[in-house]
Amino acid sequence: MKSKITFLSIISLAVIWTFITTAQAKADEFGAVVKTIERFYRVKHQSIPFLARAGMKAATTAAKIRGGQYKRLAEAGSVKIVFFQDQDFDSRGSIANFKNALSSAVGDTWSPLVQTLSPKDEEQTYIFIRDAGKKINVLVVTLARREGTVVQVDLNPATFAMLLQSPEDMGKAITDDASQDDN
Amino acid sequence: MNKLFHTAMRRALPLLLLIISAAAVATAQDPRVQTTSLDHLVGKASQTVNVNIDERLMQMTAKFFSGADPDEKKIKEIISGLKGIYVKVFEFEHENEYTPADVESIRSQLRGPSWSQIISINSKKDGTVEVYISMTNASINGLAVLAADPKELTVVNIIGPVDLEKLAELEGQFGVPVLDIEKPAKTKKLQDFGLKPQLKN
């Protein structure tokens, strides 16, 4: 009897541990993307100050896209963001290698939606999306010669549908919205 | 044992051939154009834009456009039934940075049995624009645009029931670049600009 309980306990612990590690692995693509940027470009990110983050919770700010007024894009509390400021993003002609490294970091659960690259200006935008039930996870990576931003937000499908009309502008709209300070 | 094997093979062979030919037909009718052969141009191009909107996204998007608002209703009508929009644009600083082989890697796919070229515009100054439609069971299931000018190479691939009119309405939206392709009724006007439209069935 005692050995049966011990066996069941071990199995339960193993199942719980597997669940936790799977959930962590699933949730950590954002971190993997940030690390990939840091390793490839030898840069260091800065997190957004706490007060600015608190300001993002307001859901009433209007964002103008394609001439219309809309509510805040990102779902309240869903924003993850890191900045890279005053740093040197120089791929030394191997921007395609960075693109591949980024795709590996993001993994298979995300689908690439938009990529815009200007190797000469070191400007890059990548948008990846993932189905999250009633919401859509959107991961936006924007890099320029001296700065960069990584944003992950949850969007409701209606907002996403509106943004999809102009996918080239989606990255900027989401990044601007996520980094907006309402205070 | 050997006899049994031969009998089994004789019976299985027609079935195997049927499966292979069905798979070949399915592949031939797939209107998705593969553009990975152009990936090496990323390093050469001054700007690259790559948009991938798959069937799930198209259907979800169509669902969220209101039928009541006139603008949204129009968008809903345009994208209804579409199963994907895939766009690749390479802009170059100088001429001749992509090769005829790069263009041929796309064009060769559009010579498949389901594809027909409906427009071919050649201009020394502005390059070429070719529009192809893919048909299956007498209905359009895809469209492809291959636009190659000296400093730009564009491939647009729309999956689903799409004609030139719908393409014109999609221009500037959902990643489809403005291609300035005249609708069929107006193609004569292209001659006014020194271009030579060739309509094929």
Summary keywords:
heterodimer, A: 183 residues, alpha+beta, 6-stranded antiparallel sheet, two-stranded antiparallel sheet, 8 strands, globular, B: 201 residues, 7-stranded antiparallel sheet, 5 helices, 27% strand, disordered C terminus
Percent in strands of chain A: 25-35%
- What is the ordering of alpha helices and beta strands of chain B? HEHHEHEEEEHE
Determine the N-to-C terminus distance of chain B: 56 Å
Most extensive protein-chain contact, per-chain counts = A-B, 27 and 25 residues
Order of helices and strands of chain A: HHEHEEEHEEEEHH
User: What value does the average pLDDT of chain A take?
Assistant: 78
Low-confidence stretches of chain A: 19-25, 54-70
- Molecular shape of chain A: globular
Q: Structural class, from secondary structure content of chain A?
A: alpha+beta
- The assembly state of the depicted protein chains is heterodimer
Number of strands of chain A: 8
Indicate the low-confidence ranges of chain B by residue numbers: 186-201
> Major sheet of chain A: size, sense and barrel closure?
6 strands, antiparallel
State the gist of this model.
The complex is a heterodimer of chains A (183) and B (201). Chain A is α+β, with helices and mostly antiparallel strands and 183 residues long.
